[in-house]
Structure formats: structure tokens, C-alpha cells
């Protein structure tokens, strides 16, 4: 876990005041810069020391075989792994022949700051070489949000006491040596030397490298150019080799003199374009960046972010740590999705190789709800990417003997890459999650073109899947058997409530669109009989209920299983998946992550208030949160059923997942869905926002420790500003249309220039705090705050 003191608590930045070598790996993820297309880990400019060097391009992967001891029909044969592409961040510095390396000499000062408003990673250092030569260094790095193919660094060195001979080597390095992976199954399969050199060149202050991947057949180009300002006599040379481009600047600095190097880097990749075309593409991007100049790029970055924050900022008054964490979260969620432009948003964004760089349901269920109400164009892009993979999902469905589409559980390029089918292919709920994201995006934006086009195809083909995956039993009930829900400690179960409710929504929404767009329906080959079958299946959907316990079992038979022996499980045996066989987890009542509880958030309209309270208490006792995708959902439902302080605890856990490295794997990349989850915990949790069937509702209530919570959401291009205090909530709209909402169940209209102010009712009668499994209680925000 990262100690409190490692970073300062500030509302608009993440600052590390000393270089902590034992936190290098985590800091590389936390300080990662990305625009959704390019990702640079926060490695030190000089390259070493490093924990995990990482430069990624969204969609660039290599294939690797998936070996099986016992193969079976339909098992995916090939996996996809994100690769570390050409490193354009490297700037090595030699001071009188000695490399600047903080492990040697004396590091007098070292500070890094990620500024959420400027989008810049700043670094300041003062170092005395082992020979006693002192230098000052500042570097500022950006991955451009406005120029998608571009990243840049401003690197400045100053001599302090005596004249210093300075050599700066600015490099592009392909096939960097990577440390061995640590054996955690969730880490990427590191591929050795994945890039085959194709071309290289250097002249003046530029160099470029072009490579191809061996099996996936992708071509990757990287190019760099520099502007150099130094004292007279400063010399610049360049050279290139198959895996290395190098621009070297040499000078002698007298005390107070500076060498300033601005490095522009451009990346491009393609599975189709020729070598000359790709080389031209990166050269063009480089020329444009050069034309904009360093200051221009910084100004564009600031403008982009100021627009973002004006739409998406969440203000938390009374808890600066959560304030910082939610802005950190939103910044990284934006980075992951901003310019992905019809590519996936991976579970780790482009911050590390964790989960092989794969995209899961994390995107549609956790990330897109945030983007749909704040940066809807990014949500649309992500859904268009899913849509572009439909032919592969259709082929997969056919292979499985099903109709419609079966989207992959994890993938980069669209093919199923999960070799563990009980928690992969069997997690069919991803199809309904994609449908849910389409429904939400359309409700949030009113984008009817999208609805009738991409959206309708996604809904129709996923509805077809459900109809072929489920069946009507002798009593006429529609059953979906043999699937895995969100909780991966149960697998291949019958009638998982979450899956069935999400499928029900999917089927109903598809049938409604068929009625709304009959011409499109004909084009997609849907007739009245087919959509009637969808309606029938939805109406007859099996939703198991345990009458004895008065709760919903998360799947049929679940509540009959033996309970996990939590008392006999020691804290170091979590996550359970690394210490116990799946077969044992599967036959016990133990929940990895919110499953039934997630159903109560996303399909809250299908439960009564009393059912929600009982279900929540039941599943709290069993949920161990071995996935980062749980705390935010528990926060949302805890808030709804009246456990406001517990919601605050879970919000804290979701928001600090990476800042505190709670899952002990932040080194492999950030948990983008949990970061998005901190917005969900605030907006859907403490703000109580729901948007079911076109009805927007809020049920705000703050924990005692917060004075105020404010946020904006965009609804069909109209900005709604919600400002919640302890006693009342104030709703304001930005344009001339009135907006109808529900506040704690009571209808209200927000008129332009006339905020709607409503009192916050007291929480439902005193509830006893639910129990969590022993040792798995969330971080207690209420108690800890007094110690801060
Ligand atoms: C969770 C999945 C999630 C994946 C990637 C797993 O631990 O159980 O629900 O999609 O991580 O974040």
C-alpha cells in the first residue's frame, strides 16, 4: 500500500516531493500520460532507474498462442497482447561523462507534479554527480490531447557551481529490454523483441524508425525532431540504427547557463498502410507539432482541459483527499478515452501492460456512464469501436452455435482472447452491458442518428443472442442457463439475476427500436414475429427469489451453497483467486465483486426498496472485493438503501484504489473502471442519480464529513448543474429548456434562470450497519479522517 506521505494532498495535482525508488513502479502508472491513442508511462526521462518502461499505441498488439493441456471445441487459439512500442521518452543526460542516475551521487531535490488543469507532467531535480558536479534539471512532458499523434518534452539543464560538460542523448528505442513479469496471472505476457525493423533514418535533429510486428502484421512508425537552445558552441548530431534513433547535443555550461531541448515525437501505426505512407504520416504530424511549437502545444492542452473541466468537474467540499482523488480519476478516465477514436478503452487505459492491454465490460459498464454524461463524443467512439468488431462477434456466435453476436470477454482487436472460458466466454452478460451502454448513451444525448444506425444494430444482434442462448421451460418461463455473471467466484450458473435483468432490458429495448424505426428493422431482417419473441422472452424472464431468506439469490441455487469460511481465511490469502482453487470458490457462497448488488444499481427499477435493503445486507456479508470493480457499486447501493457513511467508505476505496495501491498491482497500470467508479460513487451514490427509461432522478444525501458536493451532467446538450449541501439540493439548467426530474421520488421542474431547490429528507429509519467478511471491511473514511 502507498503511504499517505508519498504524495501531497492538493485539489488540482498529484505531487511527489521526493523520488522514492520503492514506489517507482506505481508512480510510473500514476504519472502516465495518454490521449487514448498514445500512452507513455511516467518513466524517468533518462530511462533508468525504471520499474517497467512502457510506451503504448492503442490497438497495437502482437498475437501469441494460447496453449491448452486439454483443448476443447471453441477455445480461442490465439491471444492478443499489448506491446511496448518504440520509446520516444528517452533523454539520457551525461554530466562530465557521468550519467545522471539518482542511484549514484547525491540527489539534492526531486519533485514531480501531474497537473490536472494543464495536462503537463513537471519534474524538477537537483543532482550532484559522484565527481561533485552539481546540475539543475527541469523537464515538462505532454501527450497531446489536441494533436493525437504527438507527444513532446521540454528538457532543461543548468550548471550550478562549476562549468559542466553536458551531453544529452535524445532517443527513440525499439525492443527495449523489459523486466521479467512477476508471475501474477493478471499481468501481460511480455513478448521479447516484438518489433521487426523495417526502416530507419536520421538527419539534422531528427530521426525515425519503422517496425512491423511479426504475427499481427502491424506497422509502427515513430519519429522525433528537436529544437535546441544552448550557449555558443552547442553541437547537435544525429544517427540511426535498426532499433535506435539518436540525436546528441553537446555543450559546456557555465554556472547559470542553460541547455534547453524541445523534443517533438510523432507516432503512427497501421495494418494496411505502406511503409512510405506511414513514414510520411508521422513526418507530417511532426511538422504540424513543430509548427504549433512547444508553447502552442501547451496552450492547446490547457484549452482542451479547461473545456473538459468546465463540463466534468466534481467539487467535493470538506474532504480534500477525495477532491484530489476524483479529479485524478477523471483526468485519467479522460486520458483513456479522449482520442481513442474508434479503438477500445482498455481496462488499464494506456498506463501499463496489465491484463495484456485488453478491453473488458469495464468500458461499457463503468467508464461509459461517466463519458456519456460528460464527454459523449468519446462514449460514441467507444461504442463505434464495439460496432466495428461485430463481424467477429457474429462469427464467434456461429462458432458457439448461437445467433446474433457474442462479443468477446477480453480483446484488443475483437476476437475472444480469454483462454479460461468459465470466466470468459461464459460471461455473456457483456453483450447486455454493451446494449445498456447504447441505451444510456442515447438517453443522455438524444443522438437519433446513432440510435437508428450503430445503436440499433448492436441492440438487435445482442437481442438475437439472448433469444438463442435462453429457452422457455415447460412453465413458459424464459431461462438463461450455464452463464457466468459479474461475480467471478461463481461460474456457469443458471439464471444469474444480473444477466437476466440486463438481457431483459436488452430484449425490450431492441423490440422498442424495431417499432420506432421499422425501415431499419426491415434492413436488419427483423420481422414482427421476431420482435414479438424478444418481448415474450423479456416478459417471461426468470428472476429467482429465495422465499425463505426473503432475498434474491444471485443465481439459482446460490443461497443453498455452503458459506465460505471467512474466519479461517487470513488477510494474506486475498485475493482468494491466487490462493484457492476455483472449484472450491465456485461451490461456496463467496462473492468476488458486486453482482446482485450491481443489478440493483443498473436495474434498480426491478427491485422494491425493501428488497434492495435486504439484498444489500445479505451480499455485504459475502463480498470480499477481490476486484476493483466492486467498491464503487457497493457505494452506490449503500447510499440508496440509507448507509450514507458506508457509501463514503466505499467511495474512498474506489477513489484511492491506485493512489494508495489498494490491490497491490497499480504497477501494472491504473484501474480505469474503478477510477470512473469514483465518479459513479459520488454522482450515482451520494447524488443518487438514476436515469431509467428516460426519467432522470436524484436522491442526494451527504455523509456528515462533507459540506458540499457539486457536479454537472449533460443531458441532450443541456447542462444540468447539481449542488448538494447537507440540508438541500439545488438544480440549475443552462439553456432555455425546462427539465423535469425526480428529487427523492418527488417530481420537479427546473426552469431556466430559476434553480429548483429541494430539502433533503432524513435517511430511512436507523439502519444497523451491515457486516462485511471479517478482515474485508472497507477503509473507514469517517474514523481515519480525524487522524489526517
Ligand atoms: C474482474 C472483471 C474485470 C477484470 C478487468 C477482473 O478481476 O473480475 O470483472 O472485467 O478484472 O478489470
UniProtKB/TrEMBL annotation:
Signal peptide, first to last residue: none
Tree of life domain: Bacteria
Binding site for substrate: 361-362, 592-593
UniProt domain Glycoside hydrolase family 65 N-terminal: residue ranges: 19-270
Active site per database record: 488
Ranges for domain Glycoside hydrolase family 65 central catalytic: 327-679
Chain spans, region Disordered: 756-788
Family: Belongs to the glycosyl hydrolase 65 family.
Protein known as: Alpha,alpha-trehalose phosphorylase
Lineage: Bacteria, Bacillati, Actinomycetota, Actinomycetes, Pseudonocardiales
